[in-house]
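Continuing from the previous page of notes. For each protein in this section, the sequence appears first, followed by its structure tokens. Read the first protein now.
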Amino acid sequence: MALTTDELTLLKKYIRIDHDDEDDLLEKFYERAKIYIKNEVGPIDETNEDMKEQYDQACALLVEHWNDNREAYRIGNNAYEIPYSLASIVRQLKYCYPVEDDEE
């Protein structure tokens, strides 16, 4: 599912991009970020507003990280590690918002 115009505008504002040249790339990054976060956390209850907010924030952080670190490798001290803030949000999504099982 593609980002809405408002969602894309908000994402670009968050990562401080003011041109439209790479909108398609940002949308791809965002779709992959959603997959990445769901693989880390498990099911996301998008009806839970708090969980949805943190999920969107985690996706935006990951898009920003991937956008800023496009090289295959980096020489020197600068590493491609996922930012601590993203790891913290993923941990909260994983343990603070239990998703009910439909099988019960």
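Done with the first. The second protein uses the same format. Note its length before scrolling.
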Amino acid sequence: MADESSKESGRGLPEGLREAIEGAFAATEKTRGRAQDLTGRTRDRAQELVDGVSRRGIDARGTLEGLRLVSRDELGALERKVDDLVERIEQLESESGSKNDG
């Protein structure tokens, strides 16, 4: 007859094999738990990043909506006014120069 360690348990498996299988299941369960925890943390971090990008997009949209774009006609009118002002300043400077000389 075999010694005590080789006796089979009630399920027909040697005690050592049964313990090894249970140990493997326990280790797998721990690994699965860690993987689920890591997956949860990764999901949370990804959501934080998506929320941050979304907030920045909303901020940028608000900034762009606050800007007033100038049409070509408005820009042309402004250029003409600047040209008129330049001419007027030149005229005033030439008039003041001739008065200072006299």
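What the second structure shows: Residues 57 and 91 are 50 Å apart (CA to CA). The chain is about 80% helix and 0% strand. We return to this in next week's lecture.
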